[in-house]
Amino acid sequence: MTFTVAIDGPAAAGKGTVSKAVAAHFGFAHLDTGLLYRVVGAKVLQGENPVAAARALTADDLSAEGLRTPEVAQAASRVAVEPEVRAALVDFQRAFAARAGGAVLDGRDIGTVICPDAQAKLFVTASAPVRAERRFRELVARGHVTDLDTVLEDVKARDERDSARAAAPLKPAEDAVVIDTSELSIEAAVAAAIGAVEARR
């Protein structure tokens, strides 16, 4: 049985948390597709060519150390605007989506480009100030030295890059269920997502 859940949304909206919970609830495999771009971004920071890095990516690369730093996040956002990088990663994502037993993929263009025929599509979002506050707390908890204004500017810059790029811009699929987590608890957001997926099964 193949059943694909596509979950898109901007940075720090909660889509990773929601995606993991949905996958666990239904017993589906989960892929954070942003990690693919983080791997490529990390390799670019080490001097590699982004397209070559994307084409050589393997599943083992996804467990590399240091993929969650702000520097890698920014590098990932920059390489993600390159059409050749995106094209190189499409097959990896589609193969994962087609695995038996069900799959949840979260990213920026899953419902619109990678899996337009996904049985369930969600778009998880929140206001920029709310997302910046969440990301700020997350970074401080990991020991990063930063301030809220800087994080908010980073969030806005990523939003602009993600939404304005020519290749697969960030936007909800026409048939996606939009979940705004600005005022929702994690439990409420997860419940809304599970309900949306249940409605499509």
Question: What does it look like?
Answer:
- The chain is α/β, with parallel strands linked by helices.
- The protein has one domain (4-198): P-loop containing nucleotide triphosphate hydrolases (Rossmann fold).
- The protein has helices at 15-26, 34-45, 50-55, 70-79, 83-97, 110-114, 128-141, 148-164, 186-198; strands at 4-8, 29-32, 103-107, 120-125, 177-180.
- Strands 2-3-1-4-5 form a 5-stranded parallel β-sheet, with helices on both faces.
- Helix 1 (15-26) packs across helix 9, helix 2 packs across helix 4 and helix 7 (128-141) crosses helix 8.
- The longest helix has 17 residues, at 148-164.
- It is globular.
- The termini are close together.
Query: How many domains, in number, for the residues?
Result: 1
Shape: globular
Percent of residues in helices: 40-55%
SS field, number of helical segments: 9
Low-confidence stretches: none
Please write the string of helix (H) and strand (E) elements.
Answer: EHEHHHHEHEHHEH
From the 3D structure, determine the CATH topology. Rossmann fold
CATH architectural grouping = 3-Layer(aba) Sandwich
Largest sheet: 5 strands, parallel
